[in-house]
Amino acid sequence: MLTIDNLHVSVEGKPILNGINLDVRAGEVHAIMGPNGSGKSTLSAVIAGNEAYEVTKGDIIYKNENIIELAAEERANKGIFMSFQYPVEIPGITVTNFIKTAINSNLRARNEKEMPANKMLKKIREKAELLEIDSRFLSRSLNEGFSGGEKKRNEIFQMAMLEPSLSILDETDSGLDIDALKVVANGVNKLKNKNNAVILITHYQRLLDYIVPDYVHVLHEGKIVKSGGKELAHELEEKGYDWIK
Predict the structure, then answer these.
(1) Closest C-alpha to 72, from 188, 172, 168
(2) Conformational region of residue 43, where left means phi above 0, alpha means psi within -120 to 50, and beta covers everything else
(3) Which residues fall within 8 angstroms of residue 68, CB to CB, at 6 or more apart?
(4) What is the pLDDT along the chain (245 residues), one digit of tens a residue?
(5) Could you give the C-alpha distances from 78 to 71, 100, 164, 166, 244, in angstroms and in order?
(6) Within 10 Å of residue 145's Cβ, how many Cβ atoms?
(7) Domain hosting residue 48, numbered range
(8) 3-class DSSP state for residue 66?
(9) For the chain, how many structural domains are there in total?
(10) Among 237, 150, 199, which residue's Cα sits nearest to residue 46?
(11) In terms of Cα–Cα distance, which of 209, 198, 200, 201 is closest to 234?
């Protein structure tokens, strides 16, 4: 589904990623871990198409297409979803209206008809029930006054509605208490299937107790310096990162 080949990325002339190689297949969960400043969030932003970063070398192949030159919106329309560490508040736009707009925008980009209102409402109800979201939550302004856990739950709801092929969760566990973490992880687990893939960016092994990865990769100074199975995350929790630098 996703192949990253010798990816080099800079910001304002400063190298951040220094030759990333990664293969993600459908049905897999990949966890990206590493110390602060290692390039984890940069990697997620570049896959999603953030224009603040300059790709100086390498390729990003998604579903057999090189997407290096595609804008973020084009990548989203092709099925790449990214949840943000700090979601933006949009007063006056309800959660429901936002997701309706997003879905229909995707459909128009694929030259498909907009989703009929009754079908949209049915899907919203089904996904809200799946993720145990109260209907009153959906009528609130997007992220306005939301707790950290509510913001993250809202992003998982968006993921459920958009049904992306590739989901990138950038430190989705940041600032969550254990109950909120379980809610978010439960949502991600319910949405996983053999046709989609998930990349988790995280500092902490605790998230991986609830969303079990197929592979764990450690970034250091812009490179993947070690890869392994879920047991690698436990080893990092015990030893830190110094032993693999």
Answers:
(1) 168
(2) alpha
(3) 55, 59, 60
(4) 999 999 999 998 899 999 999 999 999 999 999 888 888 989 999 999 999 999 999 999 999 999 999 999 999 999 999 987 667 767 888 888 888 999 999 899 888 999 999 999 999 888 888 877 878 888 888 877 777 777 878 888 888 899 999 999 988 777 677 877 887 788 888 888 999 999 999 877 778 888 889 999 999 889 999 999 988 888 887 777 776 75
(5) 11, 17, 8, 9, 36
(6) 9
(7) 2-244
(8) strand
(9) 1
(10) 199
(11) 209
Amino acid making up residue 171: E
CATH of residue 235: 3.40.50.300
Residue 71 is which amino acid? A
* Six token digits for residue 34: 């590493």
Type of residue at 48: A
Residue with tokens 């109260």: 134
